[in-house]
Each structure stands twice: as structure tokens, then as C-alpha cells.
Amino acid sequence: MNDSTWGGTPPADPPAGAHPDLPPGHDPYGSYGAWPEQVPDAPTGYDAAPYDAIRPGRPDGHGDGATRAQQHFPAGVGVRTQDDHTQVLSPIAGHDPDDGSQADAGEPFHEEPIRRDPAHAEAPREGRVVTGDQPAKPVGKAGRNLPQAIGVGLALGGVIVASLLTVQVLFVGVVLLAVLVGLWELAGAFGRAEAVADAAGRTAQGATVGRGIRIPVIPLAVGSAAMLIAAYARGAQGLAVATALTAVAVMIWRMTEGPEDFLRDMTAGVFTVFYLPFLAGFAVLMLGDDDGAKRVLTFIVLVVCADTGAYAAGVISGGRHKMAPTISPGKSWEGFAGGVVLAAAAGALCVMSMLDGAWWQGAVVGVAAAAVSALGDLAESMIKRDLKVKDMGSLLPGHGGVMDRLDSLLAAAPVVWLLLAVFV
């Protein structure tokens, strides 16, 4: 049996010392020693026990006196590193225990996994599958890819502005599309399962736990469309009636799926009705006024300025004073102050220039928008922590999912709508 990975057949009588310059065990046809000097001084992370298993000579060609080609490990042996990432080695001719080639080798070969130090691990080669976490892509100081975030933000802003300045009903379609994508992301996050890790961060195979919440997506999607259309056509009264009917439809739909976990799923479904399409409906309500496009633009500018000001102030100041470290460690009071200041200034300018209001009215609206949008961001962070997900999705590069951008807008929409209705 040819056990050499070099493809040749070992010479019948390999001359001893054929390669005097190579240390023992590095000659492809030389013999391995017992490695007595390697085990006591093995690098941190090596386990001596697996080496003991391969020292004695055995009829299968492993142990003292076996050639380097004969001492290769069988394919499929899991090599566990210190962080329990598993490397599955590529098949080697004659050493796959499942191919029947060792039927005449005596007792079956069972090798213990070897613990290797990650610092000495080889780079993955062709034919080797490496499982485990891959190195994270570099991001900015605040945890996002800034060029990508700016590019995606400008693209989304361009779509919104174009819909407002051309055919305003298109804005309702844009809002509906965002709500439907957010609904899809939220339904996936509710039902997602998360791996259970111990204190050291290790995860046992198959050990998962998840919320498993099943929200009725079909009545939610149909009801969302009805709510936004009713808000545009019938105003606040239409939005209220459509919201009530959608909540009832969600409860009835879930009843047809049986009583198990009914209260949990129904509660999550009704929560979704109010969290997504109902709050988004206030942006559509702004559009119903005579200067609706300007009100919507003011609303979006305020929330964007609050987020931008908070990001910039947090990065510049270092964010030393955390706002809610157990909910969102990246939020700081310095960032919050920066968002409030920038939103107040933007509100004063927008209300004076576009809505013919007083500067102080715009400043009040800006401060309120910044405060409520921060609360909306924290609320979504709380939801993600409860569901054990980092982002609701990955559709928007540099931002995460659609829900990761809607959180601030959803919370600020009813507040801005109300204050603008009072002031202007």
C-alpha cells in the first residue's frame, strides 16, 4: 500500500542517514523517534496524551520507526484548537478509515484529536475546510463601515426626496416597502435560534435555544398596506380604524394554528402592528397636509441630523460617559448631546425656511426629535438583546438591516407630526 503523499513508493531498504542534514522525523523516508524531548517542552496548548497514543510501533505503520508518509493522520480527524474551532483535514490516499483500505491493517485505527496552539496553526490549504468564526472586517471607531454607510444613506435619501418632489403618492410606496422588509426581518429575528455558549464562549454541537416566536406574517403584510393607504386617504381616523382591524386579523389568524404558544405569538404579532406600520403611518399623515412634502423632509432631516451629530460627537469625544451600557454600550451622553445640538439647529433652519414658523419652534421640534429617536434606538437595541441578535438583517451595507435604520424614524414620527401640527 502506497502511504506516501509524494506519490512514490518507499524504497525497500531506505538507507539510514540518507539525509544527515535533516532532523529526525523530517526525512520523508526516515524514521520518527519517540520524541521524548518534545512532549515536556511542548508549547502552551499542546496535550501530551495524544502524542503517547502514536509513539509505540503498531502493525498499522504508526509509531516509532514508521516513516513520515506512514504517520499522517486519517482524513476526517477533527483537529481542535484552543478556541474549539474544528479543522477537517483533506483525504490522504490510503488513510481514510471509511474507504476500506485499512481492512488488513489489524485493529482499527482510532486517533485522539490533537490540540494545537492557534499561533502554530497552518493556513488553510486547498481541500481543507475550516469551520469557525472568520476574522471580522475592519470597521470604524463606532463599529460601522463609514464609507458604505454614507453611500447607502445618500442613496436612500435620494429615493425619498425624488418620491416627495415628483409624485407624492410614491412616498407611500417607499414607506410600505420599508415596512414590509422590516416585517420580514423582524419575523426572522423572532423565530431565530441562538447557540448556547458556556462561560469560555464554547458552544456544544446542537446546543441551541431560540424564542421561536411565530408572528402571522400574511395578515401583518396585508394590514400594513391597508393602514398606510388609509392614513394617506383618510388621515388619522383611517389609520386608527385600519390598525384595530389589523390587530383583530392577527389574533384570528393565529387562532387557526392551535393553542400552543398562542399568547406569546399573538402578543408579538399585535406588538408588531403598532411598532411597524402604525408608527410609520405618522410619516404618511404628515404627507396629507398642504405642505406635506416639506413636513416629511423636515422630519427626515431632523432624525438624520440627530443620528449624525450623535455619531460624530461620540467618536470625537471618545464616548466616555455611557448612556445605557447594559443595553447599547456604544451610546454615550456626549453623543446624545451632539445629536441634540445638531438637530436643534437643523430644526430651527427647516421650520423657518420651509414651514414659515419661528426658530424656537423648530429648535423645540429638533430637540424632541433627537431625544425620542435616541429612545427608539435604545428600544430596538433592547429587542435585539432579548432576541440575541446583533443586527436585524444585512440588507444595507454599513447599516445592518432595514429595521436598524427605521428604529429612530419610527419613534420620532408621531412626536414630530404632533409638534408640527401644534406649531405650524
TrEMBL record:
Gene Ontology cellular-component annotations: plasma membrane
Catalytic activities: a 1,2-diacyl-sn-glycero-3-phosphate + CTP + H(+) = a CDP-1,2-diacyl-sn-glycerol + diphosphate
Transmembrane residue ranges: 146-165, 171-191, 212-233, 239-256, 268-287, 299-316, 336-354, 360-379
EC number from the UniProt entry: 2.7.7.41
Alphabetical keyword list: Cell membrane, Lipid biosynthesis, Lipid metabolism, Membrane, Nucleotidyltransferase, Phospholipid biosynthesis, Phospholipid metabolism, Transferase, Transmembrane, Transmembrane helix
GO BP annotation list: CDP-diacylglycerol biosynthetic process
Topological type in the membrane: Multi-pass membrane protein
Record keyword Manganese present: no
Record field: compositional bias (Basic and acidic residues): 55-65, 107-128
Pathway(s): Lipid metabolism; Phospholipid metabolism; CDP-diacylglycerol biosynthesis; CDP-diacylglycerol from sn-glycerol 3-phosphate: step 3/3
Location of this chain's protein in the cell: Cell membrane
Matches recorded under PROSITE patterns: CDS
InterPro entries noted in UniProt: PC_trans
Homology family: Belongs to the CDS family.
Name of protein: Phosphatidate cytidylyltransferase
